């Protein structure tokens, strides 16, 4: 099944290359086609994420209330999910179903043998804009004397684009401040990894990331601060005694003191 899936994606990439005459545009179109095919699953995942974000303040309130009783906390959380019709695992299934396709696409773009000319011959270089899709940016940057300062600058822009698109994806999709702090180094890490990947693979990553941002904005909307939990109602104040009641109580106290004497 894995070989069949990889072969189908490789064949589709080649057909798109024949249609566009450029492997760069073929990779972009292939990424968009696959994202469009997986959009129903992605949409389901994003809707589940949106519902969970709405419940976040209520969940935090329950966690504070039952922090000493995990079993009661779990019961209360399940009741909350049922009351709002939310399945916390519904967002995981679409992601799992997408993984084989995404890994197969990664496998196709990582092997230069999948890039052939119109005559069927393996290609040694694939120019696209100022880059070669088969070149690793680190190779050019480390040999700046061979490729020149301008060539090195173009390839040095690859990790910047990858890190920037990854940061944008996190900015719109990660709304929990604690998660945002945990993933703060992820864009830099992905950008560093792109130095040792072929530019063609980075082109796929950039296109896929920006397509996900567009999907998120389409389904969830513009990012904003999470809604705050409704404050607890204030405790009712005890009724204050009326002035006449106060005078009557004071007079009664005086009479009791007089009798005591």
Protein described:
The protein has a two-stranded antiparallel ribbon with strand order 1-2. Strand 1 (127-128) and strand 2 (131-132) form a beta hairpin. It contains 11 helices and 2 strands. It is an all-alpha fold. Helices cover 71% and strands 2% of the residues.
Q: What is the strand tally?
A: 2
Give the overall pLDDT as a whole number.
76
* Gap from first CA to last CA: 104 Å
State the order of secondary-structure elements, H for helix, E for strand: HHHHHEEHHHHHH
**Lateral strand order in the biggest sheet:** 1-2
C-alpha geometry: elongated
How many alpha or pi helices? 11
The biggest sheet amounts to: 2 strands, antiparallel
- Please estimate the helix content: over 70%
Radius of gyration: 31 Å
Which residues sit in consecutive blocks of at least 5 with pLDDT less than 50?
225-238
Structural class: mainly alpha
Tell me the fraction of residues in β-strands, as a range. Answer: under 5%
Brief characterization of the structure:
The protein has 261 residues and is an all-alpha fold. Helices cover 71% and strands 2% of the residues.
Properties at a glance:
261 residues, mainly alpha, 71% helix, 2% strand
Show the helix and strand layout.
Layout: H1 2-20, H2 23-37, H3 39-65, H4 70-84, H5 92-110, E1 127-128, E2 131-132, H6 137-142, H7 144-173, H8 177-182, H9 186-194, H10 199-219, H11 243-260
Antiparallel strand pairs: 1-2
């Amino acid at each position: 099944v894995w070989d069949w899936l990889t072969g189908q994606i490789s064949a589709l990439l080649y057909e798109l290359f024949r249609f566009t005459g450029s492997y760069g545009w073929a990779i972009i179109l292939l990424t968009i086609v696959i994202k469009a095919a997986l959009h129903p699953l992605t949409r389901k995942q994003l809707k589940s994420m949106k519902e969970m974000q709405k419940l976040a303040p209520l969940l935090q309130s329950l966690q504070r209330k039952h922090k000493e009783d995990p079993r009661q906390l779990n019961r209360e959380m399940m009741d909350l999910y049922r009351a709002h019709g939310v399945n916390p695992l519904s967002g995981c299934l679409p992601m799992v179903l997408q993984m084989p396709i995404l890994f197969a696409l990664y496998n196709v773009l990582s092997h230069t043998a999948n890039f052939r000319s119109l005559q069927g011959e393996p290609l040694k270089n694939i120019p696209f804009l100022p880059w070669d899709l088969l070149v690793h940016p680190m190779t050019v940057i480390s040999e700046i004397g061979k490729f020149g300062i301008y060539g090195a600058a173009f390839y040095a822009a690859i990790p910047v684009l990858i890190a920037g698109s990854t940061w944008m994806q996190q900015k719109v999709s990660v709304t929990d401040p604690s998660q945002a702090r945990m993933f703060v180094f992820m864009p830099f890490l992905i950008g560093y990894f792109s130095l040792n990947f072929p530019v063609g693979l980075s082109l796929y990553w950039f296109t896929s990331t920006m397509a996900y941002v567009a999907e998120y904005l389409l389904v969830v909307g513009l990012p904003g601060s999470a809604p705050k939990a409704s404050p607890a109602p204030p405790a009712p104040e005890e009724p204050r005694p009326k002035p006449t009641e106060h005078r009557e109580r004071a007079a009664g106290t005086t009479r009791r003191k007089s009798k005591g004497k």
